Amino acid sequence: MTQRLDAMQQSPELFRKLVDFSLAARKGRLDAKLLHLIEVRASQINGCAFCLDMHVKQAKLHKEGELRLHHLAVWRESPLFSPRERAALAWTELLTTLPPHGVADADYAAARAEFSEEELVQLTHNVMGINAWNRLNVAFRTTPGAADAAYGLDKAQFA
C-alpha cells in the first residue's frame, strides 16, 4: 500500500481552520449524542475508517449505547431511535449522498418537523463538517486510532 501524506503536517493552517469550523458548528442547541450519531452515520456511508473509529469511541465516552451504535447502519429498521434522531439521520444521509436534483421539499419538511430553523442550520453545518473530515481522511488513508491518545479516546476501552 502506498504511503499517503499527513494532511495536518502538510497544511497546518487549513487543518486548524477545519478544526475551528467543526468546533463552531458544534456550538448550539443540538445534543452531543445526536451529533455523534450523525458523525458515525456519515463516516459509515463515506467509508472513513479513521472518523468512524474516532466517533464511535467519542459516542461511547458520552454514554451512547453500544447496541444503538451497531444499529446505526440499519436505523430505519431499528426501534432504538427517536423520531428526532431519525430525522437527523435521514438529513445526514441526504446531504452526504446529495441526490442529483437536490433536497426535495418533502425531505426538507420532514427535517423541519423535528428541528427549529436554528437547529436545522446547525445540523447542516455539522453534516458538512463530518463530510469534509471524511473526505480528507479517506484521501490520505489516516490510520484509525492514530490520534486516540491525543484526543483521550484510549479511555473508550474497545477491544
Brief synopsis:
This protein is an all-alpha fold and 159 residues long.
Keywords:
159 residues, mainly alpha, AhpD-like
Class by SSE composition: mainly alpha
**For the record, what CATH class applies?**
Mainly Alpha
How many DSSP-defined strands? 0
Number of H/I helices: 9
What is the H/E order? HHHHHHHHH
Average per-residue pLDDT, rounded, comes to 94
The CATH topology annotation reads as: AhpD-like
CATH superfamily: AhpD-like
Structural notes for this entry:
- The chain has 159 residues and is mostly helical.
- The chain has a single domain, classed as AhpD-like.
- It has nine helices and no strands.
- α6 runs antiparallel to α7 and α6 crosses α8.
- It is globular, with a radius of gyration of 16 Å.
Question: Mind sketching the topology for me?
Answer:
Blueprint: H1 7-10, H2 12-26, H3 32-46, H4 49-61, H5 66-71, H6 83-97, H7 105-114, H8 117-139, H9 148-151
Helix pairs in contact: 2-8, 3-4, 3-6, 3-8, 6-7, 6-8
